[in-house]
Amino acid sequence: MADFSYFAEQFDDIKILRYQVPAFERLTLREKFFVYYLSRAALAGRDILWDQNNRYNLEVRSVLEKILRDYSGDRECEEFKQFLVYAKKVFFANGVHHHYSMEKFVPLFSKEYFLALAQDSGISSPREEVMRLIFDADYMAKRVVQDEGVDLVTASANNYYVGVTQREAEEFYRLKPGEDEFVTRGLNSTLVKNADGRLEEQVWKVGGKYGPQLERVVAELQKAQEYACNETQRKGLELLIDYYRTGDLRLFDRYSIAWVKENEARVDYINGFIEVYGDPLAYKASWESVVEIVDEEACERTRKLADNALWFERNAPIDERFKKPEVVGVTARVVQAAMLGGDCHPATPIGINLPNAEWIRERCGSKSVTLDNITYAYDVVSLSSGVLDEFAASEEEKALVREYGSLGGNVHTDLHECLGHGSGRMLAGVGQEALRNYYSTIEETRADLFALYYIMDPKLIELGVIPSLDVAKSEYCNYIRNGLMVQLTRVRPGCNLEESHMRNRQLISSWVYEKGLVDNVIERVTRRGKTYFQIHDFRRLRLLFGKLLAEVQRVKSEGDFEGARNLVETYGVCVDTDLHQEVLARYERLHVAPYAGFINPSYRLVERDGRVVDVCVDYPADFLAQMLEYGEQF
Length: 634
Ligand code: ZN
Fold this sequence. Notes:
Blueprint: E1 7-11, E2 14-18, H1 29-44, H2 46-53, H3 57-70, H4 78-93, H5 111-120, H6 128-135, H7 152-155, E3 161-162, H8 166-173, E4 189-193, E5 199-203, H9 211-225, H10 231-246, H11 249-261, E6 267-275, E7 286-294, H12 296-307, H13 309-315, E8 332-342, E9 351-354, H14 358-364, E10 367-371, H15 372-383, H16 387-391, H17 395-420, H18 439-455, H19 458-462, H20 470-484, H21 500-515, E11 522-527, E12 530-535, H22 538-558, H23 561-573, H24 577-588, E13 595-599, E14 602-608, E15 611-618, H25 623-633
Parallel strand pairs: 2-13, 3-4, 8-10
Antiparallel strand pairs: 1-2, 4-5, 6-7, 7-8, 9-10, 11-12, 14-15
The protein binds zinc ion (ZN).
Zinc ion binds next to helix 18.
């Protein structure tokens, strides 16, 4: 499939992409069946997420679906086109609020027009709440509110609490004397105030809230169970099914332990109420699912790195006191996503590290995966988006990145995830709370620097991880260009950097730029009013990464709060306003949507003479058609 098209369409600030699953073809028939049923389980819980995001989302969706299917009038006029964009945005966000900014979408068509569409499609009149949700901008304006000084629960438009205030919810979930601190709390229920004023949990389980959807998830998981890759995995599925049937969070914890211990299977999955970002109080988890196929070739790379973890630790350019005497428990894997569902679709993460329960992580470790077919699709599309041509400093740089950029990015991620975070140690008595709000930026900075320092090490060629140091050079170009310019496209004019990964990238890039000025390591060039950063000396740049790594490791190991604050505040927070404006203007002319999500592949059983003999994968190209199909099927 040489001419597979990764880009499907673009509307508003959203790009719709496609991804391939080449690893599927290398599976045994048994494993293919496993993927098939896990995929159906991944889609069967879709409606749960819509309802979690807002209590009227499913009603809005069914009106949109009916209009899209049955409207008989003009579909070419401007207003219908605006309706179409609105509908696609709602499908993309699994509801009426933007998936990233959390703000409610503003329809660019009138209420009257919408009513006419509905009537023509056989809906006599949508409910008042539905009309209000779509057209009244102040009503349920933001899905998750994080501002200080307001009641986060009542101000948020999500559906995790009904008639409950923030104080009441916090009191309800406060650990009481005698309660087990190791059981996850509140993760799988809606907290409701009932008629006589008492608080009550409506648990998400078969026979409870979301019962019909979970019944379907369970039915598919049961079929999947027959094809599990090994006994540990089969047992894990059994625990998950029991948990969905009872809603008992102790079973979920037992399941998570079984899941994290299973490391052999070629097919793995995530299915459950997992991440708590959708709840401002971080108790309630949204439903999500991913089906994964291990990419053995790419894992070969991470295995080589993991096997040599001790060599990397010993040779790191940091103080001997901060080095680990031994390195254990490196279990990062590279996988291909085979299906994305719930809160992982259409927008998806590119790396996942679970379980979230801190006590399980400490006792049993965690599993970390990177979804390399997803990053590959991003890379292909981004290379043709014009961004590289606009911001790269030279033709040589563009050529280098086109040839090696994708591999460079993957090796960087491998080094960051499977060695960087695990390297180094704290001095006795120092905990991560010492760095307080700067901890995550410092930790991401440290892992990135570890990757940047080692990606240019001849050891990687010796290990067969990279074919030449040009891979490292392309990664250096990408990193500096992104850290000093391109990532600013995601920041609104007049704002500074808040997100920790963005802070760490600017911290590193602007530190090495400043320290390298005397030797002209990186030169800031202006041509025809446009700014570029040209790297002149890759070897010196590597030494600067090493030098900063030593300092950042010291800050972490000693718990030096002032040191952390200095680095982050001086290099990682403030945006150069003029450069920011210039970058935004250059980016806008490229018409590139900043957010992206995916159309899923579709799997089909192949029958011959009444027997199922194979599973086929197709790659649909129509986003809206897939959304309508999911609405009918699940
Ligand atoms: Zn990280």
